[in-house]
Amino acid sequence: VTRLVDLEPVDVLEAQVTVGAGVTLEKLQAHARAAGLDFGVDLAARSAATVGGLVATNAGGIRVLRYGSMRHQVTGLSAVLADGTVVSRLTGLAKDNTGYDLTQLLAGSEGTLGIVTRVRLRLVPQLPGRAVALIGLAGTEDALAVLARARRLPSLAAAEVCYAEGVALVRSYASLGAPFAQSFPVYLLLECAAGTDPTDELLELLGECDELGDATVASDVAGRTRLWAYREAHTEAISAAGVPVKLDVSVPLGALPGLVAELPPTVEKVAPGARTILFGHLNEGNLHVNVLDTGTAGTEVTDAVLNLVAAHRGSISSEHGVGRAKARWLELSRSPAEIATMRRIKAALDPNGLLNPGVLLAAGE
Ligand SMILES: Cc1cc2nc3c(=O)[nH]c(=O)nc-3n(C[C@H](O)[C@H](O)[C@H](O)COP(=O)(O)OP(=O)(O)OC[C@H]3O[C@@H](n4cnc5c(N)ncnc54)[C@H](O)[C@@H]3O)c2cc1C
Predict the structure, then answer these.
(1) Given ligand 1 and candidates 50, 248, 289, which is best to mutate, with the most ligand atoms within 8 Å of its CB?
(2) Where would I find the beta strands (DSSP E) of 115-206?
(3) Atom of ligand 1 nearest to the CA of 59
(4) Is 331 helix (H, G, I), strand (E, B) or coil?
(5) Predicted pLDDT at 1
(6) How many CB atoms sit inside 10 A of residue 340's CB?
(7) What is the ipTM of this complex?
(8) pLDDT, tens only, 196-240
(9) pLDDT at 184
(10) Which stretches of the chain score pLDDT less than 70?
(11) Which residue among 46, 69, 320 has the greatest number of ligand 1 atoms within 8 angstroms of its CB, and so is best to mutate?
(12) Residue minimizing CA distance to atom 14 of ligand 1
């Protein structure tokens, strides 16, 4: 699949493009931009993540708020099924109600139903005017209150949250200065993107928010990159500090402050002294829970965190997929009837269990 790296010319009329499954997100973005368009999914792993992997995991990232996750960008694909059948639907028709949507069945199937070889993707307008605000706040409730107001801005493109512990780790890893004169428990990053400079509407919004502890805004590329670094360098900074237990969960927004408050004591109970670092995509209630210094209690930490998430009616895998590591916890998020139906689909398309055995659906049950 890594050799499937061809990029067809951008279809400007349809604002779509067909690419090989091995093309990296970064290459796809550059290809779309060269044609005056852009791609709606972006994430920190852009230089390594392939289109096939992004489709297979239905990846999310920092633009879901505006454009949806990877499956929303996919208008069609080609895939090889376990018996060698090639299913291909690359017309990119905006309206096509001719039966089961096999493209969307394969999106998010984590390589368990077929190998994706080519993908037809929707492109979005290029938005050269950008402004980023980094906001210091007292709590997650305040971040949600600011987000609720920010959603009124048509230019809102990203809303990312991180916390004091993570920002301290990022600062020492990336040798970054403090964003503000004082430290805050919560940091909210908002990005606006539009055809023209959205700085004024972002500033106007901030002026309406009583919750702000402090805020800084950047419109130039260097300033925006500097503010994004506090959020985007989390994954690298955490990995440099040790081997974390990495979980990726989402809960309804109303449950998020409770989850954030309950996570550290829940982890502490099963892994005393462990460090819980949280960051994520606020609009989707999506938290990346990274736990350092768990010693031998990695499984206990995973179990405790995922059960807590389920108690908040959340998902045990918001955007990274279930894989093998979390397959045994799938029943916390999906009903027995749903899991049984997934198994019937798997058995119909891959009766011998050749494709990614044990991924998503635990083996031997
Ligand atoms: C720094 C960093 C930040 C990240 N941030 C985000 C984020 O914000 N949001 C998010 O959603 N994810 C994020 N990720 C995870 C990222 O989405 C995935 O790593 C990536 O999308 C997977 O692409 P890949 O090519 O690396 O796939 P792999 O990791 O190689 O594979 C992932 C799964 O897809 C299957 N697969 C791969 N290619 C195909 C194919 N052609 N056909 C069928 N199945 C296939 C594999 O078998 C496997 O089960 C991040 C990762 C890193 C390292």
Answers:
(1) 50
(2) 115-122, 124-125, 129-137, 156-163, 186-194
(3) 11
(4) helix
(5) 82
(6) 10
(7) 0.95
(8) 999 999 999 999 999 999 999 999 999 999 999 999 999 999 999
(9) 98
(10) 364-365
(11) 320
(12) 45
Q: Measuring from each residue's beta carbon to the nearest atom of ligand 1, which residues come in under 6 Å?
A: 1, 21, 43-45, 48-50, 52-54, 56-57, 59-61, 110-111, 115-116, 235, 319-320, 356, 359
Three-state SS for 332? Answer: helix
CA of 57 to the centre of ligand 1 (A): 6
Report the Cα–Cα distance between both ends of the chain, in Å, rounded.
Answer: 30
pLDDT of residue 260: 98
Instruction: Please name each of the domains of the chain with its CATH number.
Output: 16-125 (3.30.465.10), 129-235 (3.30.70.2190), 242-332 (3.30.70.2740)
Specify the ligand 1 atom closest to the Cα of 58. 11
pLDDT in tens, 35-86: 999 999 998 889 999 999 999 999 998 999 999 999 999 999 999 999 999 9
CB 291 within 8 A of CB 245: yes
What pLDDT does residue 357 have? 96
Q: How far is CA 289 from CA 1, 232, 312, in A?
A: 31, 15, 15
* CA-closest residue to ligand 1 atom 36: 53
In the reported structure, the alpha carbon of residue 316 is separated from the centroid of ligand 1 by a whole-number distance in angstroms of: 17
